[in-house]
Design brief:
The chain has a 4-stranded antiparallel β-sheet, sandwiched between helices. The protein has a two-stranded antiparallel ribbon with strand order 3-4. The protein has one domain. The mean pLDDT is about 90. The protein contains 5 helices and 6 strands, in the order E-E-H-H-H-H-E-E-E-E-H. It has about 120 residues and is of the alpha+beta class. A hairpin with a 2-residue loop joins strand 1 and strand 2.
């Protein structure tokens, strides 16, 4: 099983954006830690919490446990088979530096995020 595989690479102004599939949970967790509010909101919406959890079990976005809740739900969505988990990390490279800006447990959500930030038409 490959450690990483590039699913998408697109040129943006002054750089590139790529979606990388990885099985490395530490890498995914680092990307998650760098997500801004827009990325976190996009991920949370894709996880469709009302379909999976009771309303009273879903913390508000301002709750201190919200990010942990989103992380755990995303990890659950990343399960491929048994104990195999895969993550899709969006990496933006510009001016010689790169930054992991988004992670999800599925390809369509990562692709939609790339479109959201204007890197794909």
């Amino acid at each position: 099983m490959p450690r990483e595989e590039t699913f998408l690479k697109s040129r943006i102004e002054n750089g590139t954006v790529a979606v990388i599939k990885t099985y490395d949970q530490s890498f995914a967790q680092e990307a998650f830690a760098h997500m801004d509010e827009t990325a976190l909101a996009h991920l949370a919406k894709s996880l469709a919490f009302p379909d999976t959890f009771e309303d009273e079990d879903i913390p508000s976005a301002s709750d201190e446990n919200y990010q942990d809740f989103v992380w755990e739900a995303m990890v659950d969505s990343a399960r491929e088979d048994g104990n195999v988990f895969s993550y899709f990390v969006v990496k933006r490279t510009s001016g010689g530096s790169s930054e992991d800006v988004f992670v999800s447990g599925d390809w369509p959500t990562a692709e939609a995020y790339v479109k959201l930030v204007g890197a794909l038409e």
